[in-house]
Amino acid sequence: MADDEASATPDAPAGPPVCPRHPDRPSYVRCQRCGRPACPECQRQAAVGIQCVDCVKEAARQAPRVTTVLGGSMRAGRPVVTFTIIGMCVVSFLLQLVPGLGWTDRWLFWPAGGATEPWRFLTVAFLHSTGMLLHIAFNMYALYITGQFLEPLLGRVRFAVLCALSAIGGSVGFLLFAGLPGPFGVSWMQGTVGASGMVFGLFGAMLPVLRRLGRSAGPILVLLAINGVLGFVVPSIAWQAHLGGLVTGLAVGSAFAFAPRRAQGLIGVAAPAGMLVILVLAAIVKYESMLGAALAALSY
Predict the structure, then answer these.
(1) What count of other Cβ atoms lies within 10 Å of the Cβ of residue 125?
(2) Which of 172, 207, 231, 274 is most buried by a 10 A CB count?
């Protein structure tokens, strides 16, 4: 009698698990969160076990934003913005030393030139005197000290904005004294270089921040007093730029420091934007007054 039973076909052996992101790679390690295989490239060390890169990203999106008392994003590690600005200043200084390049003349600030080349209000902060190494050395050290303190508290974005506004404020301060009679005035054609406006802006911002934290601002006030005296004793110091940067940093820093907790995000945007508008308007009014004076002189 014929055997009518069909012979059973054994199941094909299952292949090794593969990474969903890289199907060509066998992956025997599974994510502790979702259970999917993860190849070595997609594995991330977690507090307990291994997680895949997708789960790590999802956890980061769902994690609450941790901020400082001033509303800056809490970050570990070195002050990236501070070191970046220092690096840019050092590279720019080396380019100033290249014969025939004309790097200094291309980016320095002079009151008359700022009317047609407004980028000079900012780029001047990355130039320094090539005949006095102490100039760049002091500014970079001061930037390092203040940046180590302010950048973690304010967050990278707001600290970068503070630096830029302080630099512009220093140039505007220098501009406002252009053409004035007496010892306080400067020539419309007088050039200036240096990150001092930016540095003094950071000093100014530290005053309200220290007050907000309940710490003494005595050392900063002493430093400002000494530099204020030097500005009138040493003729090569552009104290007008120091003053402009100081006022700008003090105003923006006060807004950052004393903003109510619920309004820190809004004020963090509105205060710098408002300060930029003020600086631009101050420069426009000054240039219009210069133009008016020039036209009046031609009419005689």
Answers:
(1) 32
(2) 172
